[in-house]
Amino acid sequence: MMIAADEQVAFRPRYSADESSNEAYAEDLRQQRFQGRKRRFYAVIILIIGFISVTIIFRIYYFIAGDIITVDGSIKQNSLAKKESFGFFDDIPNNMWKEKKTASKKAVKLQNKMITKTSNMLLESGANIDERKWWEQNWLPNFSCDNKMFIGGKWICEPSRIIDLADEHRDVIGRKKKRQRGRKECLIYVSGGNDVEFGHQFSSFVEARMAELHKDEPGVDLSICEIHIFNHFIDPALLANMVQQGKGIHIHPFGFKPENKESMGFAGDGSTTAFKTFKETVKELGHTGKSLSILAIDCEGCEWDIYKEVLSSDVTVQQVFFQMHGTPFIANRFFVAMHNAGYAIFHRDEVGVSVYDYSFLKLAPSYFGSTKPQLRQPPNTPEK
User: Fold this and answer.
1) pTM
2) Cα torsion at 208, 251, 185, 82 (round to 10°)?
3) Which of 132, 212, 322, 362 has the maximal Cβ count within 10 Å?
């Protein structure tokens, strides 16, 4: 296209005079710097929001998985065991605890198969059945306690931990208020069998552990546990001697009986005063609402009835020891009830013909989860 020579074509300069001034150039630099700072600011905000979001998701995930995040953001690697043992275990890593859970659930599933296979063997007492075969196949330990100790004829899971927890609790109470004279921080009930021997040996173990914990603190009360022995056969002279020793041992001249029985048949004169129910005992001693570290009962057959009272009482029992006698038709009911109450079997010993010592430890419901033994009644047996 040709433009006539006399035509004037106006072209606008790329920058006006004002826009090309030093002031305009400086302003332009300021705007560029401002926009750069704004972009960096937004980028930092996005990064912060992203970090917070990831942290929240991370915390939620490990909370669901059973881990606990500490204040500094690290994972407490033993938190799952502590949570599901009500604070009893504090040194088992989460991965090892999960392995224990897997093994325990497998044991329960195997027991379910055994109930189906052997429930027909549980007939009325006195029936001609192979009791040994039933015991060999049923209710084996379903929890592994790595540090158990044989004290006074009973297997105890982590006895040192019992003392450590009592000592920690005493220190907390001591900071809040003056400790009451004679008040102990752990409670132990033992009745029947070698109860006196157990009381002496456990008392000695308590003092040795406390001496180890407080070796640089002279004057500390070493008998931190309150041990109650219930024995209707106790020798009065032995009773007086043990009370004088003052090692936290308390002797009671009566034994336990189930609520549904008037007498256990051991008192020579047929009197019922030599026996009290578990609930009556807890109430009379002022232990309602408290926790028992250990409950050990050997009552020559009453265990098949008294367990109901223990599970429905107003005390929480951490470790339970029962000596089981015979093979009644209600045997599975006992073990299913103990399992449903949160008790895992960590030890079993055969101590006689169809006589077995069982050690139970209370765990949180989440330990076994939905894996539970299914009760199946043998044919032609009475209902509960």
Assistant:
1) 0.74
2) 80
3) 322
